[in-house]
């Protein structure tokens, strides 16, 4: 039976599905179909990840699998392939993976080392595998000053859907969700966290065939020779970067889906307004990221140009800084959108406040609103009192590490730059609309 600490408390339905062994088998079979249907792609992809020279087309493998031989169709495989595939070399990585960096076939049994996931380069092991699509975003989550790298791996043949809310497409609650990116089952997202050039953690967030997502976390050793699975309850460590010691908390698996919620669309970074940028890191490419993803054919339908306007980067950091033309309102609203709005949205965990960027200020539930959850001990505070950050719970909660801190988890250091931006914004507001 399930490990009691597995991340299922939010959604009982989800848990019963996870632990039903029939279901798990069905899931594995479903993923197997992907592999059979896209064997040609898979070999191509493998040659990237394993660094093997790709010597030819789909039919060039000398040791062809039984199913190939039987069906005579070479790369496309056959409907009779299931028995042979279980042991075929195409079923990859030896520990349940179906293609490199695939979600674990049984979500309760993630691989015990990061190297075994197939998500990382086999030589430069702290780097993402060559087949992973690296990207940057405009407005990052504050993670106690850690540097981050991000990437995704689509399942063979999988496509990204960009929500078009005027057309009422998947991924929209209302117009403020326009441009949200929706990823197919089988997708794996990767995020590495580091300090002073050393990695402390790599997180995987994976899309299961039933439409739910699960997160796992891997802890890097100080020698950077490997990363091992963090227990589902999470962990904490003092990490020596070589020049200082950093206290780091590895979130538990159930913490992941406190923020990465179904209502927020599971993934939190990728949306047109976040991805619309030329990467700061030259190795990620020199053109617009969305153009590159469109050229690679990864969208079901590429978003129309001009793309939705980029969120401004709230303050100077590794991802650059706000353009000179950015207003303090744009900077503050961008920060609140990226760091808070996945919980503070109309169908979110705390829905009387809506902090999405496209929500009109008067509809955010902030301005002169009597706090539903107390004033943080400050008499007469409202959620946002024009001209008075010291009377605004939105600022007070960001500036404390104590009771009532926002965000309520996964951060133990106040983001002083963000508090400055939000306070400047509140100071600039004269009256409520
Ligand atoms: C406090 C909220 C919060 C918690 C807790 C959290 N994340 Fe995230 N995560 C975010 C936000 C916001 C982003 C997007 C912004 C960014 O990438 O900086 C993100 C991005 C990611 C990404 C890149 C894909 C995406 O959704 O944008 C991965 C992978 C990821 N998180 C994994 C995890 C895993 C695994 C856990 C649990 C071990 C976890 N996260 C816990 C808020 C959170
Ligand atoms: C993981 C979900 C989550 C995230 C992320 C989050 N919040 Fe909250 N927020 C909550 C919950 C839950 C409450 C209710 C707290 C309570 O019961 O005391 C709350 C309460 C608040 C309130 C009080 C509203 C009222 O009417 O009393 C404010 C203001 C607030 N959050 C602002 C923020 C800001 C600003 C951020 C980002 C820096 C943020 N929150 C991030 C879940 C979240």
Fold and architecture overview:
This protein has 433 residues and is an alpha+beta fold. It has 3 domains: 12-91, no CATH class; 115-295, no CATH class; 328-428, no CATH class. Helices cover 22% and strands 13% of the residues. It has helices at residues 12-18, 21-37, 39-49, 66-71, 82-85, 253-259, 272-275, 289-295, 328-340, 393-399, 416-428, and strands spanning 133-135, 147-153, 161-162, 181-182, 188-195, 198-207, 213-220, 227-229, 235-240, 245-250. The strands form 3 sheets. It has a 6-stranded antiparallel sheet with strand order 1-2-5-6-7-8, covered by helices on one side. The chain has a two-stranded antiparallel ribbon with strand order 3-4. Helix 9 (328-340) packs across helix 11 and helix 10 runs antiparallel to helix 11 (416-428). The longest helix is centred in the first third of the chain and has 17 residues, at 21-37. It starts with 11 loop residues before the first helix and ends in a 5-residue tail after the last helix. Residues 1-96 have low confidence and may be disordered. The protein binds heme C (2 copies).
